[in-house]
Task: inverse folding
């Protein structure tokens, strides 16, 4: 009997994006298995954020398709977007709302009933150590708190796929541990996490799959073992991407 | 660059008439010459204080917060900022104006020299005052007392305007012009803004002590304003915006609104639309960018009913036009509404195909205060003109113009968005590089709003011109048209929002 193949949680095919003369993403193909914790790594300017923006409906691709559990995101957004929980990087939030109100807003936008929103809002505030900040305007949040509240907004509607751009940036170690636990339990229950990061140690610690992106293309992808090929992942990354830093002597810095 | 060229062309076009005006003043005789220059200088100074605050668009490249991370002291920044403040088109144009007014003293070399010095002193006064006024109002609007500040400004405006309006109504225009205005000018001549205007007269008479103390006092005032501006810059450099000001809310207002909506038997709205409405309403009463816009919109009708109407005893048509213009201004001011969310609209975009809900919720938040405000204006217009028979026509015109302009603005804000001051940024700034895009959007949206709004005002004109009973036709036609265009525009904007969702974040970033 032939094995039943499930559609990938997120399938990116032929994604392209150009900004003026700059090709940010150049024919990117990637399939993210359902239930995986997928890390996307790459140097600055590799196209990670652009790729994730196209994969979540925030940026129209010049070419290519995005399938969320087999549903075309750009042709059937009303079916695909409810399955996605999104945490973008570098974008603002509605900071005239309190932390609690922002989570409620995210839940109500998803069509959830007020009672469920309230229950999940309180759960998320407690789980992410934001209970005290629930009544404070997001405008007064620190960078880490803003990251956590945005993550709560991505979780409130219990999506099937989480797409997180630098979810641990500026987050304290205690909260990071709590977030790792939540995400791990999420994938154990069948959910899929796609996460971008610059921190190789973090990717090695939490992810079971990884894709290395550079110049808008996938250089390697698969399980951690497949990609690292027995080497340290960071060394493998540098070998694939190339050491682009100029070895210039900053003698003027050593004046103490 | 486009704006700079247009502004330069406009300024150049005014240059000949400025020179001609100076020649006319020159021929009025010494007393009238001094009065005219004093009055003109005072009006220009008032404009420099008020216009940058009310009409957003002041270049934010001199915003001291942009230099905060460089660790530069105010002492090092101020020389450059001071010079830069004079290198704007308005400053250069008014330098020409003040120096041209100084040439009215050209038949006496001593007086001319003093007048030229005085012109430069006055220029410095108005330029620094404008910077200081914007700095103060920005700081106040971004504090937790923002709403109190807005109320205070309105009350202050009323306290200033009421005596003038009372004088005009009780004494009449002739008396005010012949007695009160000269008395006011006499007072202004002893204020720093007026002293440079009268100093040349004393120079012509050889009374150098009177010249010296007047110019010295004006210079001292300039130095004081500059010092106050510098103090604001120093404060801004080391006091990052604490935009929330520690405000804490007792309850989750959005959830409360959602529960009330869910309990409704009639008129229950879509949950997403209600959430957007509640969120947008919060911004109308707490965000300085929205509050500064509110001030700008309400100044004109307030000034008309308290100043202009008493002066001119305006025809009924003019009085009745004010609420209509208010409605049009409110509606058109939302022509870039979506951009005011800045990149925060990502949350709306990723949450589903919510274009219609988003646009309807935003419009409802605006209507919540716009409808009562325009209704109040209608009542005031009817009361001052004693034409209560025109109320149906007026309501129809106002409802029509408000609905049509909001409908056009809904479409414009999605189809032609341009970068607006982001949350926390100076509400009086214009984004460098976006001014051209903004002008195009403003031009197109205003033309479209006019075209759509004109038909709904025709019954009002007919009611005023011929028979007040046309007003009943206007009430039905105007209201129905306003509702229809608003509904159609909002729905169309919603569809465009969904279609353009992948480009909106970048368009407003």
Result:
């Amino acid at each position: 009997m032939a094995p039943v193949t499930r559609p990938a949680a997120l399938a990116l095919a032929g994604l392209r994006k150009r900004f003026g003369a700059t090709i940010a993403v150049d024919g990117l193909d990637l399939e993210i298995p359902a239930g995986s914790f997928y890390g996307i790594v790459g140097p600055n300017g590799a196209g990670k954020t652009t790729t994730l923006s196209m994969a979540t409906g925030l940026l129209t691709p010049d070419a290519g398709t995005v399938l969320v559990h087999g549903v075309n995101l750009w042709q059937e957004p009303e079916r695909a977007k409810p399955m996605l929980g999104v945490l973008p990087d570098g974008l603002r939030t509605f900071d005239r709302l309190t932390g609690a109100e922002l989570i409620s807003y995210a839940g109500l936008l998803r069509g959830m009933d007020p009672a469920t929103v309230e229950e999940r809002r309180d759960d998320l505030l407690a789980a992410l150590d934001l209970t005290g900040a629930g009544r404070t305007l997001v405008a007064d949040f620190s960078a880490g708190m803003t990251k956590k509240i945005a993550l709560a907004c991505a979780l409130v509607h219990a999506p099937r796929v989480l797409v997180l751009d630098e979810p641990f940036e500026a987050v304290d170690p205690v909260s990071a541990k709590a977030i790792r636990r939540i995400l791990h339990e999420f994938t154990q229950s069948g959910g899929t996490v796609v996460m971008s990061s610059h921190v190789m140690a973090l990717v090695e610690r939490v992810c079971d799959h990884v894709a290395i992106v550079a110049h808008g293309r996938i250089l390697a992808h698969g399980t951690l073992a497949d990609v690292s090929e027995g080497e340290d992942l960071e060394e493998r990354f540098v070998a694939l991407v190339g050491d682009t830093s100029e070895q210039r002597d900053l003698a003027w810095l050593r004046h103490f | 660059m486009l704006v700079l060229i247009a502004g330069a062309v406009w300024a150049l076009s005014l240059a000949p008439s400025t020179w001609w005006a100076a020649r006319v003043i020159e021929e009025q005789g010494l007393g009238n010459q001094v009065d005219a220059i004093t009055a003109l200088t005072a009006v220009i100074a008032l404009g420099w204080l008020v216009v940058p605050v009310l009409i957003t668009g002041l270049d934010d490249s001199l915003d001291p917060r942009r230099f905060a991370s460089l660790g530069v002291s105010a002492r090092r920044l101020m020389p450059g900022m001071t010079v830069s403040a004079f290198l704007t088109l308005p400053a250069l144009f008014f330098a020409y104006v003040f120096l041209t007014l100084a040439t009215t003293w050209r038949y006496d070399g001593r007086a001319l020299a003093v007048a030229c010095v005085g012109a430069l002193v006055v220029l410095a006064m108005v330029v620094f005052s404008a910077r200081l006024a914007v700095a103060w109002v920005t700081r106040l609007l971004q504090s937790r007392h923002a709403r109190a500040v807005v109320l205070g400004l309105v009350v202050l405006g009323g306290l200033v305007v009421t005596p003038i309006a009372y004088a005009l109504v009780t004494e009449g225009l002739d008396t005010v012009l012949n007695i009160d205005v000269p008395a006011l000018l006499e007072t202004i001549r002893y204020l720093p803004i007026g002293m440079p205007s009268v100093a040349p007269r004393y120079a012509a008479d050889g009374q150098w002590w009177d010249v010296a103390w007047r110019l010295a006092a004006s210079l001292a005032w300039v130095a004081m304003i500059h010092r106050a501006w510098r103090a604001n810059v120093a404060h801004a450099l080391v006091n990052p915006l604490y935009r929330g000001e520690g405000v804490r809310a007792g309850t989750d207002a959005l959830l409360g609104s959602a529960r009330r909506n869910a309990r409704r038997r009639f008129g229950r709205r879509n949950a997403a639309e209600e959430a957007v409405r509640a969120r947008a309403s919060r911004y109308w009463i707490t965000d300085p960018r929205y509050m500064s816009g509110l001030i700008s919109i309400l100044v004109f009708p307030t000034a008309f009913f308290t100043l202009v109407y008493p002066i001119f005893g305006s025809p009924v048509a003019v009085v009745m036009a004010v609420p209509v213009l208010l409605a049009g201004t409110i509606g058109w001011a939302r022509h870039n509404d979506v951009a005011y969310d800045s990149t925060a609209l990502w949350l709306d975009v990723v949450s589903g195909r919510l274009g219609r809900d988003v646009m309807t919720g935003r419009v409802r938040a605006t209507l919540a205060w716009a409808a009562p405000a325009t209704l109040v204006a209608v009542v005031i217009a009817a009361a001052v003109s004693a034409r209560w028979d025109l109320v149906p026509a007026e309501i129809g015109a106002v409802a029509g113009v408000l609905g049509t302009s909001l409908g056009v603005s809904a479409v414009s804000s999605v189809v032609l968005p341009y970068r607006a001051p982001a949350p926390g940024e100076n509400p009086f700034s214009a984004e460098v590089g976006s001014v051209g895009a903004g002008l195009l959007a403003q031009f197109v949206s205003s033309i479209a709003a006019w075209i759509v709004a004109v038909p709904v005002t025709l019954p009002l004109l007919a009611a005023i011109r011929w028979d007040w009973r046309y007003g009943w036709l206007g009430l039905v036609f105007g209201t129905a048209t306003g509702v229809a265009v608003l509904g159609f525009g909002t729905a169309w904007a919603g569809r465009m929002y969904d279609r353009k969702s992948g480009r909106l974040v970048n368009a407003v970033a």
Observations:
- Chain B touches chain A through 48 residues (CB under 8 Å).
- The longest strand of chain B covers residues 58-59.
